[in-house]
Task: structure prediction
Amino acid sequence: GIQVEQSPPDLILQEGANSTLRCNFSDSVNNLQWFHQNPWGQLINLFYIPSGTKQNGRLSATTVATERYSLLYISSSQTTDSGVYFCAVEATDSWGKLQFGAGTQVVVTP
Amino acid sequence: AAGVIQSPRHLIKEKRETATLKCYPIPRHDTVYWYQQGPGQDPQFLISFYEKMQSDKGSIPDRFSAQQFSDYHSELNMSSLELGDSALYFCASSEDRLQETQYFGPGTRLLVL
Result:
């Protein structure tokens, strides 16, 4: 099956700092989503981005499908950005099944 | 905006008991997915339904079964519960089963004692 690798596994940021999270995948995809899992366990959809670039407030994402990677940018981080960020992909033969990466644990300190 | 509803939010069961988790998708969403997230792990796909028919199956134990009803809500039935079934169970829905955003519910936290 498709492999999804996220880096770095852990990230500690000071409030106000910027950061980049990376997601590499091993095969062509129909779908790529970025999620934020908050400390209460809720999975919040950030972006649906199988290709191209999107921005939503302080967050933006870019997927280069031909090179099989996606980047999530967090700018001016806030303590509420803490949590685990997951990249999940739907392989072209998977009909909706999302394969998640192991996640990046982000801690933003005041 | 309406979101995916899951019930119950928390559930405590004894080993060998049975549990039923319910999921109500976003209105007009016809596809439902179930995922299991163990402690410290990423969510793992269990099963999906499109237009009330099973669409895809992942690593779902034979002790688990699921279905989607005529009103598109779905239920995950878990029998002969084991300690290892303790996890966060997510339901997600999408407007179609192909190349669509999956919206996740708040999850049901199951603890098996």
In short: Chain A touches chain B at residues 30-31, 33, 35, 41-45, 48, 50, 86, 88, 90, 94-103 (CB under 8 Å). Residues 49 and 65 of chain A are 10 Å apart (CA to CA). The mean pLDDT of chain A is 95.
